[in-house]
Each structure stands twice: as C-alpha cells, then as structure tokens.
C-alpha cells in the first residue's frame, strides 16, 4: 500500500492557501492511488519544541544510555521520524514568512534530521526511495524570470535539507502571488484552479 505523509504548517485554517492546495492535491492523489493511505501531521496541533539543551543532551547520548528523561525528550522526535520513514511520498504544505519557512516547520525539520535514523554518521542521507512534493504559498512570485528570484530562500532550503536526508526527487508547486486572494483580487477557488495542472501532475 502506498502511503502519503502530509505535513501542514499554516495556522490559517480554511483561509490558508497552502491548505487549500493540499486539499486539491490529496483529492488528486486519492484518485491516482485509490488503495493508498494518507497520514496527516498538522504542525499547528503538534506540541513541537524548539531544540534546547536537554534535547541536545539526549540526542548526543547513545540510546542504550538514555535515562527515562532523555527518552521523554526524544519521544515526539522519534514519532515524527517514524512517520517519515514509513511513507512513500512526503508532502510539505507551507506558507512563506519573510522569505523562509515558518518556525513550526523549521522545528519539525530539526526533529526529523537525526543522526543514525535519517542521516548516516558518514553524512549520507538514509531516507531513500521516497519522493517529496512541496506545496508553497507566497505573497511574492519567485519563479524563473522573477526580479526577486534570489529571495526564494524557502524553496532552496527545503530542497537542500530534504536532499541531505536522502530525498532528492522533489517537486515544488509554487503558489506565488497568493496575496491576490487576501486582497480579494481573485477567489480561493480561482487561485487554486491556476495550479490544477501542476497539482495533478505532482499527485500522479
């Protein structure tokens, strides 16, 4: 059975462009994979901690030497890593904040990049044989030909960090100019419709 892991980051609920992109993508994915399973990880409902000293102490301590407190520190991280390793297709749906990813998504990344689990001690990625799709909503347009192309930090960062852990087959569906929805220059449905062909291709 093919398994899709969807990581959501936007706090805007039904008003979120990236979440609406996800809904369309998942609908297309279910059509293409009728026997597939969808696992959802909503980071706005996940009690993610930012990396601190106790977490790092647990991280750098060999597992066989973990105290109950250290195991508790890494419990959520272990769960998130397990979800990632169990999926065949990873989807990250995210807005862009100040040219980069939201803090919640960065915290998720810090929790899933784990030496010995997703990253080898030789620096090689261990999460191989998987594909990823990034559904990105941004007020600015950063695609090829844009005068602010060099500000596309979020895409570069996600491609880089996914590649580090071994996921090199990455498709980005860039929902640039999403502020048009908030400015009521277009409807949510109309905006998502402009991305239909890309969403369908990524889900196939």
Secondary-structure blueprint:
Blueprint: E1 3-8, H1 17-32, E2 37-42, H2 53-59, H3 68-86, E3 89-95, H4 103-112, E4 131-138, H5 153-164, E5 169-176, H6 179-182, H7 188-193, H8 196-203
Parallel strand pairs: 1-2, 1-3, 3-4, 4-5
Helix pairs in contact: 1-8, 2-3
Short summary:
Helices cover 40% and strands 17% of the residues. The protein has 8 helices and 5 strands. With 204 residues, it is of the alpha/beta class.
Task: Walk me through this protein's architecture.
This protein has helices at 17-32, 53-59, 68-86, 103-112, 153-164, 179-182, 188-193, 196-203; strands at residues 3-8, 37-42, 89-95, 131-138, 169-176. Helix 1 crosses helix 8 (196-203) and helix 2 (53-59) crosses helix 3. It contains eight helices and five strands, in the order E-H-E-H-H-E-H-E-H-E-H-H-H. The chain is globular. It has 204 residues and is of the alpha/beta class. The longest helix is centred in the middle third of the chain and has 19 residues, at 68-86. A five-stranded parallel beta sheet has the order 2-1-3-4-5, sandwiched between helices.
